[in-house]
Amino acid sequence: MTGRVGLVAAVVAVLALAALPMVAEKFYVQLVTKILIMAIFAMSLDLLIGYTGLVSFGHAAFYGIAGYALALLSPQYEAASVWTSLPLAIGAAALAALVIGLFVLRTSGIYFIMVTLAFAQMAYFVFHDTKLAGGSDGIYIYVRPVAEIFGWKPFDLENFGHLYYVVLALAVGVFVLLRVVLASLFGRVIAGIRVNEHRMRSLGYPTFRYKLAAFVFAGALAGLAGWLSAVQFGVVNPDFLAWHLSGSVMMMVILGGMGTLVGPAIGAAAMMLAELWLQGLTKHWQLLMGGFIVLVALLLPRGLLGLLTTRGGPTDSTRG
Amino acid sequence: MDLGTFFVQLLNSVQYGLLLFLVASGLTLIFGIMGVINIAHGSFYMIGAYLAWSLSGAVGNFWLALVVGVALSVALGLVLEWLLINKLYDRDHLYQVLLTYGLILVFEELRAVIWGNDVHAVPVPALLKASIPLTENLSYPVYRLFISAVCLALAGLMYWVIQKTRLGMMIRAGASNREMVQSLGINIGFVYRVVFAVGVALAAFAGMIAAPVSSVFPGMGGQVLIICFVVVVIGGVGSVKGALVAAILIGLIDTFGKVIEVQIGGFSVLPELSGMSVYLLMAVVLLWRPQGIFGKRL
Question: pTM for the whole thing?
Answer without folding.
Answer: 0.89
